[in-house]
Amino acid sequence: MPQPVNVTVPTSLHVIIPAAGIGQRMQHHRPKQYLPLAGSTVLECTLQRLRQALPDTLLHVMLHPEDRGWANTDCAEDPTIVPVTGGASRAESVRLGLAALAPLAGADDWVLVHDVARPCVTVADIHRLLVMLAEHPVGGLLATPVTDTLKQVGDGHLVTATVDRSRLWRALTPQMFRYGLLSQALEQGAQLGWQVTDEASALEQAGHHPLVVPGRGDNLKVTLPEDLALAHWLLSRQNSSSNDHLPQTQE
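Predicted structure:
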């Protein structure tokens, strides 16, 4: 498991949390970010982790144009958490978030993007990402090596091959990139119709090479109904450990 690190949080850091999805796979009438978790909601648990890791950094939350849940959260009263109207896709929401940051951000500033559906990210992993990328010209992402055996499947659900997993990693968030490069890559992707599943994929298609920073395997993404119970258990386990609460300073 990655070890904790001490970190100085840069003042040139901006945070975007895509939260405009409707969570169709959760099979629930409410978007998954507003489902109950650990005494609050998925969204509030995620924002709490980010606030613990980055106490003095503005958090920009990308919301659906017809969002009806935000006003009912405690976060809506926090002046350091800024609601911004998101788009129809994750990439579009991040693009809109970057546009909202334009008056505040320089080309070499950092933009950290974190899935609202990953409430189990640890403070230590966020800090490790900051430390490992501090001098990197592009940026990178948290990820974990693939441990399962992977099968390639053809017609009729028949296995056609076993895939070599030795160089495969599972992408997590946060992902953090230079403001200028990320903005350019997402704009180019929108114009050329790239398939952009995360920020790293946009940078890759633009010809850059993001750095992989090893993260914890319990950085669960809440996607299916059964994930909520697992997330609740993980949060309770993590909160009982003191290793995740480290001091930090501001530049």
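Summary: The chain has a mean pLDDT of 92.
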